[in-house]
Every structure is written in structure tokens, then in C-alpha cells.
Amino acid sequence: MPEFDINQLLTGIAVGAIPVLLAITLHEVAHGWAARLKGDRTAEMLGRLSLNPLKHIDPIGTVAVPLILWVTGGVLFGWAKPVPVGFNNLQNPKKDMIFVAIAGPGANFVMAVVWMLLFKLVYLFGLQQGLIGSWLISMAEIGLIINVLLAAFNLIPIPPLDGGRVLRGLVSESLGKYLDRIEPFGLIIIVLLLFTGVLWVVIEPLYAFVAGLVRFLVGL
Question: Which residues contact 211 (CB under 8 A, 6 or more apart)?
């Protein structure tokens, strides 16, 4: 087990808190707003269309698990409190499910682009040597990493991940019912993939593609 370094932890929090909290908050809010646009106001009524990150933090998935993995040198992994969606309230449940599901990763992609624009602007204005400039660059780099990771991870086609929801909306009802039976075990499957190393094998090429696309769009 690597030696615990409190200074490194505090530095990581100072640099990473803003991009991480924005990434998980806007991801969940995007799901809620997409559902609202399609007729479901469950998230709105429960106060989950809020930019307050405390509304979306899961004490175990957002704090405890990532912290333990970071301290022990493991691959960072975690989750936020899912925004509730009443799929039966959607105007066209099967079709709209895809729109609602893709909204979260879509928000992360947009945020990744914004962070890289900030990165580019720091260099364009020659601020990279200063303390604030260095801090902004570090935040922008973490913003890219966390948002692309969240987008790539959530696009894995295993329910209840967003990719699983998209797949559920695309396949026939007979296959969809099979996916419904898998969903209660989805988190267990994901954790097993994580600790066997298979998860990163799946995510890595998707992460590389999305990160490369973001950099290309920004001109980096």
C-alpha cells in the first residue's frame, strides 16, 4: 500500500474539487432536464434540478469509494446519486429513454470542451507561468480527464448505466426484458469488471477517442 500523503491529498482536493463536483452535478442535472423536456417532472419535484452538488453526492459512491481507491493506489471509480426518472411519464418512453440517457454523457463532453478552451486561453494570454495560471491549467486537465472518464464509463452498455439505457431503447422488447433482468445486478457486474481489470480495457479506447476528439475540436 502506498504511503498516505496528506499534503498530496489536500493539493488534489484544491485542484480537483471544482471540476469533479461540476462534472457529477451537471451530468445528473442534464438527465433531469432532459426528462423534464420529455414530460417527466420527477427530478424537478424532488429538487434534483439543482446546481448544488450536495443534492447529487452519494456518501459512499462519490466520497468513500474514490477516496479509498485513491489512497490505496487503485483505479479511481465512483458514482453520484442517480436522478430519478419516471420513464412511464415520458411522452414516448422507449424513444425518449435514449434522449434522457445520452444527456448526461453529452453534458460531460461539453464540459470537457469548455475545460480545454480554458486551457488554451491560459496559454494564449501567457498566464501559464503564474500561480493562478498553473492552478487553472491543472484544473482544466482534471476537468478533461474526469468528464471524458464519466462519459466513457457511463456509455458502457450495461444497465443501469446510461449506455444500458440507450441499448434498452434501441433493442426489441424481448431483448429489452432480458436487459431489465440484468439491471439489478448491473453494479455487481461493473465492480467485478473493475477489480479484474476488464473495465479499463473497455474504457481506455473510448476514453482515448473522446479525449482526442475534444482536443481536435479545441485545436490542441
Answer: 112, 144, 145, 148
Supply the pTM of this predicted model.
0.86
Number of domains in the chain: 1
Range of the domain at 214: 6-218
State how far the Cα of 128 lies from the Cα of 189, in Å rounded to an integer: 43
Does residue 97 lie in a domain region?
Answer: yes
Residues 6+ apart with CB under 8 A from 218: 113, 116, 117, 119, 120
Query: In this predicted model, what pLDDT tens digit does every residue of 23-74 receive, in sequence order?
Result: 989 999 999 999 999 999 999 898 888 888 888 888 777 777 777 766 666 5
- Burial classification of residue 198, based on how many CB atoms lie within 10 Å of its CB (0-12 exposed, 13-18 middle, 19 or more buried): exposed
Record the cell numbers describing residue 108, joined without a space: 460531460
Q: What backbone torsions phi and psi does residue 4 show, to the nearest 5 degrees?
A: -75, 130
Separation CA 186–CA 79 (nearest Å): 13
